[in-house]
Amino acid sequence: MREILLNDLLSLSEQDLNRTKIKFNHYNGETDPLQEFLLNPEIVNNQWLFWRKNRRNFSTGQIAICLVRMTGDTWLLTTIKEVTSELGIQKGINYAGVEKDEYKKYFGRVVVKYKKTDKVGCRNYHTVGKELIVQQILPNVYNGEEFPGYDNVVLSYKQLDIINRMGKRDWIAALESQKAVYLITDIKTGKLYVGSATAKYGMLLSRWRNYLKDGHGGNKLLKELVNEKGFNYVKENFQYSILENYNSIVDDSVIVMRESHWKNILHSKSVGYNSN
């Protein structure tokens, strides 16, 4: 059976294909456009799509298709616009455009497989069209990864922040009533912090929300780190995961005991961020 190509869905005419370009957007070393899309799709559909860095990507009258990398070779279709004008900006948002209404039902729902092997951000449709394979059509607009189970939780600060700000129901329900021993990893240095979430100091969601507020959650060495390197250091380099989780009826003393166990196992007091 032949694979379904993106244009099998879009049905762009040959004339339209000749004036269509694809903009591939992915992590640029500072910002992940997929996370931007979750918080504000228009940032991706305007700024990321129509950003110019020296070279021209589009010209007036062309059709611009915006793809955002999800993982590896999978990309999310976020918008399709017709370019209405160039703004004469050498570095910045250089184009204006209007969305193609006939394709709106696909925005944020079509997942495309494409193996990108070069650094070119914008390509003519004819050069890549036969490689743009429809992998999935989501039932609703993409709103982030589903809760993967406690054993598989690994979140960057930005991912945790998005889950909290969006109020992702599956994540909130899973975390708000759980006691846990959790791990914070500084991915830049490898240093670890082991913490516990109990009824006394707030369940797991409440505890992690404290870190979202200030980066340190009141912990001595983490507070010193934030004071020295700034809150942005935490936002760029901290990762949150669960070592053990317990339901709310388990006594707090059990969680505290297991927290001590993990501190010893991981040496988070001698070479990490635990002060006691």
From TrEMBL:
Gene3D superfamilies: GIY-YIG endonuclease. It comes from the Bacteria. InterPro entries: GIY-YIG_endonuc, GIY-YIG_endonuc_sf. Residues 177-275 form the GIY-YIG domain. Signal peptide: none annotated. This is GIY-YIG nuclease family protein. It comes from Macrococcus equipercicus. The lineage of its organism: Bacteria, Bacillati, Bacillota, Bacilli, Bacillales.
